[in-house]
Each structure stands twice: as structure tokens, then as C-alpha cells.
């Protein structure tokens, strides 16, 4: 392997291990198995991108680059440990608690601990997280409170990045978590009914597949049903 390939893989590994952002590490998981990094492979359990992975990550399941020469049964980013949502982005009213359930694939038995995380796309936003459980081919997050403060996206919604991270069983204070690949780039859209619509017509015209809003006649506002004591349309 030439020096350029070594440096490329090594720089990616150094960047991923030094970054505190699980979403950034996730991007490198996919890139490692992509065409651009054709001489790098992904070591699934140690979560690193390396050349000659058979020597560096002995005993681990590998995801090979799509351009790797030679036989491989796990070639390309579709074999990376990942999660997806059949419903696409998650829409949830601000202040609501929700259990999130997603489909997971290419997981390994050594992946025994999981967390769900969301981070609003705004400056200095904190990451909210809850533990999660694997149930067959699904990962179920503990009930999470979804909310946003301030103006959010400026249109009655706040967009949040969503991640699921994993670690080996036996959590300690020093446990290092690694992200699963968010294969569909699922996001969380947190909304406020009252800001989405200022009159009854607009409120009732909102896409009911996304926004659980209705017109609260007594208060004269667009709101979630649970926030309207009576007169909900």
C-alpha cells in the first residue's frame, strides 16, 4: 500500500477518534466503505477506518470498500451497522414525550448497550439522550422529552439531528459510544401548533400525517389535542 493511502486512512481514523461529535464519526463510517477511500476498510467493533484491516482488526467483522479488489461478502456502506425509519423524519409536538422505535441492521452481539440522542440544529445546543433497548431487529428508545426554546427554525419548528450510539455491554463512566449509521438521515422536527397556524383554516389545513394539531375553540388557538381542555376541532 502506498504512502498516500496510508495517510488517508490514518487521517480519517485520527479525525474520527478525536471528534466529540457522533454525527461526524457516523459520516466517516460511510465514507470508509465508499469509493473515495478505496483502500480503507471499516472495523465494525473497534469503529475505525484502516488499511489492511485483516491484520489491524483481527477477529472483527469488516465492511470493505466498494472498490476493494478481491472477494468480499460485506462490501459497501449498506453493510455498515445502521438504523432507519419507515416513516422518515419524526414529527413531534414541543413538550411531548415520545418513545422512538427504529429498524436496525448489521448489528453484532457485542453491541449490547444503546443510547438515543437528539441535538437541535442551533448554536450551543445541548445533546439530549436516553438509554435504548434492542428488541429483535428494532431499537426502542426510552421515553424522551422533545422541546425547543427560542425561535428554532423561525417557522414554528425546530430541527434536530437524531443519532443512535452503541457500546459493548457493561456500562461504566468511561464507556465510549460509537454511532450507528443513520442511513436515511432521519431528523426530528419539533413543532408548535400555535406558531404553525394563526387561524382555524390554516390550522385544520396542516398535514395531519406530520402535525397532530387542531383548533381549540375555547382558547381560539391551534394546539395539540392534549393541550385543549374542551372544544377541540
What's the oligomerization state?
single chain
Number of helices: 5
Q: How much helix, percentage-wise, in residues?
A: 10-25%
| Strand and helix order | HHEEHEEEEEEEEEEEEEHHEE
Provide keyphrases for this structure:
233 residues, alpha+beta, 10-stranded mixed sheet, 3-stranded antiparallel sheet, 17 strands, elongated, disordered N terminus
Report on this structure.
This protein has 233 residues and is an alpha+beta fold. It is 17% helix and 31% strand. It has 5 helices and 17 strands. Strands 4, 5, 7, 8, 9, 10, 12, 13, 14 and 15 form a 10-stranded mixed sheet that branches.
Concise account of the structure shown:
This protein has helices spanning 3-18, 22-32, 53-56, 193-196, 200-204; strands spanning 41-43, 48-50, 62-63, 82-84, 90-93, 96-98, 101-105, 113-120, 127-135, 138-141, 144-146, 157-167, 178-179, 181-182, 187-191, 214-216, 221-223. By secondary structure, the chain is α+β, with helices and mostly antiparallel strands.
SSE layout:
Blueprint lengths: L2 H16 L3 H11 L8 E3 L4 E3 L2 H4 L5 E2 L18 E3 L5 E4 L2 E3 L2 E5 L7 E8 L6 E9 L2 E4 L2 E3 L10 E11 L10 E2 L1 E2 L4 E5 L1 H4 L3 H5 L9 E3 L4 E3 L10
Parallel strand pairs: 4-14, 5-15
Antiparallel strand pairs: 1-2, 1-3, 4-7, 6-11, 7-10, 8-9, 8-12, 9-10, 12-13, 12-15, 16-17
Helix pairs in contact: 1-2
Protein name: Plexin TIG domain-containing protein
InterPro entries: Ig-like_fold (IPR013783), Plexin (IPR031148), Plexin_repeat (IPR002165), TIG2_plexin (IPR041362)
Keywords: Glycoprotein, Membrane
Amino acid at each position: 500500500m502506498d504512502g498516500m493511502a496510508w495517510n488517508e486512512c490514518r487521517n480519517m481514523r485520527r479525525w474520527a477518534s478525536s471528534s466529540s461529535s457522533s454525527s461526524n464519526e457516523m459520516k466517516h463510517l460511510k465514507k470508509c466503505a465508499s469509493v473515495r477511500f478505496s483502500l480503507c476498510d471499516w472495523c465494525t467493533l473497534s469503529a475505525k477506518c484502516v488499511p489492511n484491516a485483516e491484520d489491524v482488526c483481527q477477529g472483527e467483522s469488516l465492511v470493505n470498500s466498494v472498490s476493494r479488489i478481491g472477494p468480499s461478502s460485506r462490501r459497501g456502506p449498506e453493510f455498515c451497522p445502521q438504523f432507519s425509519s419507515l416513516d422518515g423524519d419524526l414529527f413531534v409536538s414541543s413538550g411531548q414525550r415520545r418513545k422512538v422505535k427504529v429498524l436496525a441492521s448489521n448489528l453484532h452481539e457485542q453491541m449490547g448497550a444503546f443510547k438515543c440522542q437528539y441535538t437541535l440544529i442551533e448554536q450551543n445546543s445541548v445533546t439530549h439522550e436516553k438509554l435504548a433497548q434492542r428488541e429483535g431487529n428494532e431499537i426502542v428508545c426510552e421515553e424522551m422529552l422533545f422541546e425547543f426554546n427560542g425561535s428554532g427554525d423561525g417557522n414554528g419548528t425546530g430541527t434536530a439531528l437524531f443519532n443512535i450510539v452503541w457500546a459493548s455491554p457493561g456500562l461504566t463512566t468511561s464507556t465510549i459510544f460509537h454511532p450507528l449509521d443513520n442511513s436515511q438521515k432521519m431528523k426530528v422536527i419539533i413543532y408548535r401548533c400555535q406558531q404553525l397556524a394563526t387561524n382555524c383554516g390554516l390550522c385544520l389545513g396542516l398535514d395531519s400525517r406530520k402535525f397532530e394539531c387542531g383548533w381549540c375553540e375555547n382558547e381560539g388557538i391551534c394546539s395539540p389535542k392534549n393541550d385543549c381542555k374542551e372544544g377541540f376541532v
